[in-house]
Amino acid sequence: RLVVTVVDENDPSVPLADAEIEITLDDGRKILGKTDASGKFIVDLPLNKQFSIKVRPPNEFEAFFQEAFETFVTDENEIQLLIPIRRSGVVIPVLTELKIQPERVTLRVRERVQFQLQLDPSPDRPIRPIWSVHGGIGVITPDGLFVATRAGQGTVKVKVGELQAEARVIVQSD
Q: Which residues pair with 145 in a beta bridge?
């Protein structure tokens, strides 16, 4: 299951309702839909496949936001994907390195950890990466705050442009 949440990059507390979602399967078939009032789109997808996802801003905001395009692999039963949509005219700086801290963490259900990014070179403006939680073990905010919701093992992944980093997360029951 893939849960996509689309937010405004400048104010990630603002979900983008009615954003158009287009998921392209590896055989060329497409799944189309729109985000709901909370900025979410949920779909069941087969495991261990690579997909691409295109997010178009709602029609009334098309002039203000850029289209987003990402690829991902359904490597777990549940993936939470958080996509910040950039304002028109905003360009991602060229980065050479991306790291996530901590790289490994063990938590209990309902505990939190704040993931931090290290970017090289350091950008001159805040960067809102694409976060994803694999394994159905929790949720993450646009600022990298992970909240454990279910016991198990999973991964928190972060992507900025073509650079990616990940952290292993173990969530223990109470």
A: 114
